[in-house]
Amino acid sequence: MQLKKYTDYGLRVLMYLAAKKDDDRVTIDELSGIFNVPRNHLNKVVHQLGKEGLIETRRGKNGGFLLAVDPADVRLDKIIRRLEGDEYWIDCHKPECAIFPACELKNLINEGKETFYRFLSDYTLASLMQNDADIRRLWGQEIPINEA
């Protein structure tokens, strides 16, 4: 199984915002440069994260966005389900599979998917930020003096 790039970008954006320790808003241009990802891809992701209530967005001269929730409240299973669209991992209907009524593959794959999400339910965005000072350094963000 591989997550969609959309989900990957969404998780990166959330991690970047969680690593920031100030109230400076982040722009699409900043993220595009940090992640080397086209602006239009990030625009779509940021739009959805805003609709989900995970980030606060502001348009205009002083626009940008920042994390709107506590990272400890963002469970990984829920955000990945939302970004992935929670679609079936196997599509037995396009084209219609001749053995669909008797096939156990769909059941095994669905159980594996649910096991994957149950595992992730124990982790939050905060879980990914255990090394946030190192992450900020790698992203070129300044470390406040009281944290160095």
From TrEMBL:
Highest rank taxon of the organism: Bacteria
Keywords of this entry: DNA-binding
MF terms in GO: DNA binding; DNA-binding transcription factor activity
InterPro entries in UniProt: TR_Rrf2-type_CS (IPR030489), Tscrpt_reg_Rrf2 (IPR000944), WH-like_DNA-bd_sf (IPR036388), WH_DNA-bd_sf (IPR036390)
GO CC annotations, alphabetized: cytosol
SUPFAM superfamilies: Winged helix' DNA-binding domain (SSF46785)
Record bears the keyword Nuclease: no
Name of one Pfam family that matches: Rrf2
Transmembrane segments: none
NCBIfam families in alphabetical order: rrf2_super (TIGR00738)
Protein name from the UniProt record: Transcriptional regulator
